[in-house]
Design brief:
This protein is mainly alpha-helical. The chain has helices at about 1-25, 45, 55-65, 85-90, 115, 125-135, 155-160, and strands at about 30-35, 35, 95, 105, 165. Helix content is about 40%, strand content about 10%. The radius of gyration is 18 Å and the shape is elongated.
Length: about 180
């Protein structure tokens, strides 16, 4: 019971931390789901992880080659640029043995027009339609509401598995 309570508190803390960062930075929030195999992933694969840029991704692959592969996911902490805090953030999405299936989902309740236009087949008109619906309705409550925002069924089918809904957060303008 005690372990479960601490796990729940950790999830709440991580979620709240990501929300406050998104609010402060005015950025599109993302959710990483699935896992990345640290022994088979490329530099490009590593660079989609939060907090990992091209340089650190290169260091990870180079280090993996030098040691002949990772024996434990925690060995990533030996790579320059991977702090204990960053490792704790990444660890739930890392694996030694499973096939990589990591996906980055875009939160449509915070996505900028530019982020929305990067979704497959998304036009500027559709992106603006999503933003207008979101503002008018104080956010989306479920992905299916994209259909109510003017997104065609075919477009919805194409993007529904790569978007998600996080709580709507209004940004306060500083006078």
């Amino acid at each position: 019971m005690k372990a479960r309570k601490s796990n729940i508190l950790l999830v709440i803390f991580l979620f709240a931390t990501s929300l406050s960062f998104a609010e402060e930075m005015g950025t599109t929030r993302r959710v990483w789901t699935g896992r990345l195999n640290v022994n088979t992933s490329s530099e490009a694969d590593f660079s989609i992880l939060p907090g990992i840029g091209n340089v650190t991704a290169h260091r990870i692959v180079k280090f993996r080659e030098q040691i002949g592969g990772f024996k434990a996911v925690s060995e990533l902490k030996r790579v320059k640029g991977i702090s204990d805090g960053l490792f704790r953030q990444l660890e739930p999405n890392l694996t030694l043995f499973e096939k990589s299936d990591l996906k980055v989902l875009v939160d449509i309740n915070s996505a900028s027009e530019e982020a929305l236009k990067k979704l497959p087949g998304m036009s500027a008109r559709e992106a603006n339609s999503i933003i207008e619906y979101r503002n008018r309705n104080k956010g989306f409550n479920k992905v299916e509401e994209l259909l109510l925002a003017g997104i065609e069924e075919k477009q919805y089918e194409e993007i529904r598995d790569i978007v998600t809904i996080l709580p709507y957060v209004t940004t306060k303008k500083i006078p």
